[in-house]
Amino acid sequence: MVVEQDDTMPVRGSDDVVRVRQAVRARAIAAGFSLVDQTKIITAASEIARNTVDYGGGGSVRMEVLRDGRRSGVRLTFTDHGPGIPDLALAQTDGFTSGHGLGLGLTGARRLSNEFDIVSTPGAGTIVTLARWK
Amino acid sequence: MPNTASILSAVVTGHHAALLSGWLESQRRDGVVRSLDDTSRLATQFLDLFRNALSAGRFDDINTSEWAPIRDMLEAMSRGRALEGYSPSETATFVFALKQPLFALLREQLGADADRLSEEIWTATKLLDKLGLYTTECFQRTRDEVIGRQQQDLLELSTPVVKLWDGVLAVPLIGTLDSARTQLVMESLLEAIVANEAEVAIIDITGVPTVDTLVAQHLLKTISAARLMGADCILSGIRPQIAQTIVHLGLDLNVISKATLADAFALALRRVGKMVAARPAATAPRD
Amino acid sequence: MSEIPVLKIRDILLVSIQIDMHDRLALQLQDDLTTRIVRDRARGVMIDISALDIVDSFIGRMLNNIAAMSRVLDAVTVVVGMRPAVAITLVELGLTLTGVRTALNVDKGLALIDALVDGEEGAGGRRAG
User: Checking DSSP bridges between strand C44-48 and strand C76-80, what pairing results, if any?
Assistant: First the structure.
């Protein structure tokens, strides 16, 4: 597998969430994604970026454009050093209809991604990795 | 590691003409020459590039930059051959056929030195094998691209969206619904809804042989997306067996369904505030 | 501080979301709308999202909040102009717009609001012009 692009940007406030969306769009286009696939990964990125800002105390995202044979993909790794998620299992149930919480952000982003992984250590921080392939 | 002891480079450089004619003859004997002009042009090109790459002295890895020009040439040739209908073997034989005249020349040069001769032949064989196999890889890639394109065309042809009336669209689905097709149907239908400002979309599944949980999920996603945009869907063409399957599987389709497209159309017309009426009999006198 | 303009057509408020919204702006919009619904005695709120290429759960929550507040103030909310890619993604995301009706475009949105308000008022002319 080849990494064709590899950049990191800060995710510290609302304006950064907007920038992350724009940056992910550029990379999705570079990977040759269809419009629907672009929309899916940008939306997933938006969800996790907001979580990083709202619950993680801010952090950063590493964006990679990958090529594996004929497939091309985009992988995003969001890192924060916030309080972490105490009950990962609970946090990943669908909490949207209640209107708040981490629920939809994580489960939604997972549904929109081909690969999704989350590691969280209470008191130390959270790392969310998601990828979408064309 | 540069093979400075190898005489390959010198042989190829110094016996261009003999090598070329021997090679063409070898290919002809192998039955892979369709156009002598074409093959001759390609062979000349190859030998030039081969000579250049050999003079750089590295023979063990054809993925280095010294071998890039010849790789590009082989890629272009493979692609062309694939599109012209050559088989992958025919294309690879183009390279392999060079062995015979090359070995003959090496034997001439090294004659009595058996050890040295076998070493050189081994080096040359490995090199030409790699180059020949490279053409096969390129060939595969080209074929895959063509197949991919054809699949795409087939997908698009088999999912037309038709306008039945102002504000009423229909999608007659034919054949099995897999992920790729459903995605395409969904996108085509939704784009058509926007383009036609349609309020009702009829999804007709008369031509769909089986409906399982997966197919039902795909249909439901399409219907949900249409509703989110402000249009509604009607399912039609439910055959008795499919109705039974749906009930057996406990599927809740949450959409109005009609047995026939005609029924669905009548309902759709009502939804958009239209009706079909008989024409009044002609009573006015003609002028 | 930038603001999202709120237009008024008869007794319907029309908002067109053109830019990437962040929290401050979203809260401000909700405030503006509730104020205007009361002040203008609006019966309908139309939110045009045709310029949005992404709708995430944050925007979804905002739309639901606006619908809920309008409902309390006796107005209906209609969202128009959702793009196909957005609709497909929302379905995949699992986001439901509760209390929000949708229509394809502004024209149909106005017609829908009329129909909804008419339906609530019973017979009687709203379509005076």
Answer: parallel
The CATH superfamily of C6-121 is: STAS domain (3.30.750.24)
> Contact A47/A105 with Cβ under 8 angstroms?
yes
Domains and CATH numbers, chain B: 8-152 (1.10.490.130), 162-271 (3.30.750.24)
User: What angle, rounded to 10 degrees, do the helices at B36-55 and B68-84 form?
Assistant: 160
- Closest partner residue to B229 (CB to CB) among C87, C92, C112 is C87
Smallest CA–CA distance from B194 into chain C, residue: C104
* Helix or strand holding residue B117 (H, E): helix B114-157
B198 to chain C, closest Cα gap in Å: 8
Nearest CA-CA partner of B142 in B102, B82, B65: B82
Say if B185 is an interface residue toward chain C (CB within 8 Å). Answer: no
Minimal Cα–Cα distance from C83 to chain B, Å?
Answer: 7
Distance CA B123, CA B5 (A): 11
Number of Cβ within 10 Å of residue A83's Cβ equals 16
Show the 3-state SS of C75-126: CEEEEECCCHHHHHHHHHHCCCCCCCEEECCHHHHHHHHHHHHHHHHCCCCC
d(C-alpha B229, C-alpha C87), whole Å:
6
- Locate the chain B residue with the closest alpha carbon to C50: B229
Task: Determine the Cα–Cα distance for residues B253 and C122; give it in Å rounded to an integer.
Answer: 32
Contact state of B183 with A70 under an 8 Å Cβ cutoff: no
* Residue B94: strand, helix, or coil: helix
The model's pTM: 0.72
Kindly report the number of other CB atoms within 10 A of residue B199's CB atom.
21
Residue A103: both structure tokens together: 């629920």
Residue among B191, B197, B224 whose CB faces C84 most closely: B191
Residue A93 burial (CB < 10 Å; 0-12/13-18/19+)? middle
> pLDDT, tens digit, for every residue of B185-242?
889 999 999 999 999 999 999 888 888 888 888 888 999 999 999 999 999 998 888 8
Q: Residues B110-119: pLDDT tens digits?
A: 878 888 889 8
The fold adopted by the segment(s) A2-133 is Heat Shock Protein 90 (3.30.565)
Q: What is the dihedral of CA B103, B109, B114, B120, to 10 degrees?
A: -50
Q: Which of A37, A70, A111, A112 to mutate to test the interface with B (most CBs of B within 10 A)?
A: A70
